[in-house]
Amino acid sequence: MTKKKIAVPKVFEEIDSLSLIAHKVASNVFDLSSGQINVSIRDQMVRAQHLVSDLRRADPTAKSLLIVGMGVAGMNAALAACEAGFSSVCVVESKPRPFSMFRGVTSRFVGPYMYEWPSPFHERQSYPSHYSTPWAEHGVSPLAWEASEPISAADLAIRLDRGLHAWWDAAKSKPYLVVGISKRAVRNFVIQFARTEKLRSEQRAAGSPMDPRQQFHHASLGARAKLWPEVKQAAPPPFFEPDYVILAAGMGKEVLDIPDGPVPATPRFWSDDGLKAPAVPMQRVVVLGGGDGAIQDALRALTIHHHPASFIDQLEAMPVVRQALDNEKAALLSADRQLRQHSSWSLKPSGYAMADLACRQAARNLASNAAVKEQVLKALRKGTGEVILYVREATLGKAYMLNRFAIYLLAACVSRDCDKNDGGMGFMLQFDTEVKRGLPPGAARTKFALEVGAPNARKSSFKIVEEVDHTVVRFGIDADTIPGPQLIQLNVDDRMYRERTTLKRVELPFVAMK
């Protein structure tokens, strides 16, 4: 009698593939920068590590990567790829060196954890190491730096350079870093690479002979292209055939102008501006937008602080104020967690309304405390000027809880009437308002003016805001300038692209884990 075979149940093997699905934009082409929702420096670095890790697990035979862009995402991806075993990694950049966006920018302050407020680990700003969390010893990142508090973008560039050199000195396998490349040459290669890889995929599925891979020739990169001279590099081969291309070429151009009128354009977010000039406290500053950039600029113009974490630190220097803030943090943290999870799954603005309500209630509670209000007024720059923040929508938009709470607390404590602010500037936060057009100086008007009103209001209800010294426009990125779709000729209205953008809303971990 033959023994009956015992059926061995199959084991379902899970693999990490979320980043591969979210960031794939063409055959074997992945985009780390275009259409991203979570865009902090830390988010960019973690996103890059996860993509490289998932690529390596999905295709252990892959050897070569071409990475376009030497910002934090591109560089962290390159170093992580070398550590993961990719034998040939080439990074190309049109600027003369890595991290160019941050260099020389002293008006913007950054920190990997500052925007996790009111979580208790928001204070120390080293990365990836952290002294006060269970994951302190488990986070990994090829690029690392030490900082006890938020630092300027210019300082970050210096520390990233330092971290890159330290990694370079210790690494066995290193990428080729080619700077000064021709954008057109890279664009042409990426377009052709995507077409070739799509054809090869179809040939593979049909069991047909496959065309050769697209060759990337260093000589085609333009007359200015060269190996970055600040690290020791071996001469690259004349060409190589990348298995995959990773795009990390930035998010696109910002919308910096008002729709109609001669008002001067706003400086780019990652550039220095005049909002901290000594004359500003005596002037009128109008900020347009409801996101992080607009809130930060309103806070910088209005207060003595360079970033909102410094504002909170100043408030908490008084024990009674610290206690009052502590009493509100649990509710704010709950709202923050709900907003982040809601935003991963839905575009409905109800999440913003919920978070605004939580901040508004906390701000009202705190504004009724004389000690809190006194500390807030001490944060104001002294002068008879004012800052006006106009938000087109009925709520603030995508903004970290720290920024959202700080601006609501200022709105609750600070009057537009400077006489009520102990000599500090005035402030007004107004929703459902947009600028219709700018009006130039002339005749009795000595400065620019703005015509404002509700988004769908009749012209008769518009009002003129006179004597505007500074107009700050923070309307986000122009969709027509997003680099990724341009590099591979992808339509940003394409359903597949929009669905993958939805996947990009999923919140990233604080660090990549060992």
TrEMBL record:
InterPro entries from the xrefs? FAD/NAD-bd_sf
Q: What is this protein called?
A: Uncharacterized protein
Identify the species of origin: Duganella vulcania
Ranked from the top, the taxonomy reads: Bacteria, Pseudomonadati, Pseudomonadota, Betaproteobacteria, Burkholderiales
